[in-house]
Amino acid sequence: MRKRDADPDVLEGHIDSVTGLDVSKDGNFLATNAMDNTVRIWDVRPFASGTNRNRCLRVLRGATHNFEKNLLRVRWSQKDAMLAAGSADQNVNIWDMRQLQLAYRLPGH
């Protein structure tokens, strides 16, 4: 038997099933999206202040909630400036991470 070094960290915040995640290119942040129609940005630096309960830095919301508009996948841009999330309503939502606001909603995907 192998001894575990430490218990895994649990990031709490989503109120429904997580459907996608992506680590920023610099490795400092984790983006998660869930059936609660939100994208959450987490600080995952090893020595970041706070407990796992308050490592959520930002909550980004998708379109008005219903099953067809759930955010399904999330991905950081090459330089972590933008964050894209595909939606079940066939739109891609793109947030500008400098302004922390929705920049584009691309239909037909």
Automatic annotation (TrEMBL):
InterPro entries to which the protein is assigned, alphabetical: U5_snRNP_Component, WD40/YVTN_repeat-like_dom_sf, WD40_repeat_CS, WD40_repeat_dom_sf, WD40_rpt
A matching Pfam family: WD40
One GO MF term attached to the UniProt entry: RNA binding
Keyword Acetylation set for record: no
Start-end of each WD repeat: 11-45, 64-105
Keywords linked to the UniProt accession: Repeat, WD repeat
Keyword 4Fe-4S: no
Example of a GO cellular component annotation carried by this entry: catalytic step 2 spliceosome
PANTHER family in UniProt: U5 SMALL NUCLEAR RIBONUCLEOPROTEIN 40 KDA PROTEIN
Protein name: Peroxin-7
Organism: Zooxanthella nutricula
